[in-house]
Amino acid sequence: MGKPTGFLDFKRELPADRTAGSRVADWKEFHEHMPEADLKKQGARCMDCGIPFCHTGQLVSGMASGCPIS
Predict the structure, then answer these.
(1) Which of 16, 27, 63, 67 is deepest in the core (most CB within 10 A)?
(2) Nearest CA to 2 among 54, 40, 58?
(3) What is the model's pTM?
(4) In angstroms, what CA-CA distances link 33 with 16, 24, 36, 63, 69?
(5) Which residues of 44-57 are buried (b: 16+ CB within 10 A; e: fewer)?
(6) What are the pLDDT digits (tens) for 11-32?
(7) Is 60 within 8 Å of 18 (Cβ atoms)?
(8) What backbone torsions phi and psi does residue 38 show, to the nearest 5 degrees?
C-alpha cells in the first residue's frame, strides 16, 4: 500500500505525450517517461482498496471498472 492519504495529498499526474511527428517514425510508447520520483509519488496514491484490475479502466457488464480515485 502507498501512503494512506496519498490520493488526497498528491494530484494525479500523467506523463507528457510525444509529438505526432516523433510517433510516426517508430512503434514506441506515445508517452514520455516520468522521473522515478514522480512515479513513486503517483504510486503513493494507491489506497490498496482491493479492486481487481484497477489499472484497466474498462467497462464490465456496463459498469466502469478501475481505480475509484482515477
Answers:
(1) 67
(2) 40
(3) 0.59
(4) 8, 18, 9, 31, 22
(5) bbebeeeeeebeee
(6) 889 899 999 999 999 998 889 9
(7) no
(8) -70, -35
Query: Which of 24, 31, 32, 70 lies closest to 49, judged by CA?
Result: 70
Residue linked to cell 490520493 = 7
Q: Which residue is associated with the grid cell 494525479? A: 12
Q: Per the structure block, which three cell numbers stand in for 53?
A: 484490475
- Contacts for 68 with CB less than 8 Å, ≥ 6 apart: 47, 49, 51
For the chain, helix (H) and strand (E) counts, in that order, are: 3, 2
Compute the residue count for the chain.
70
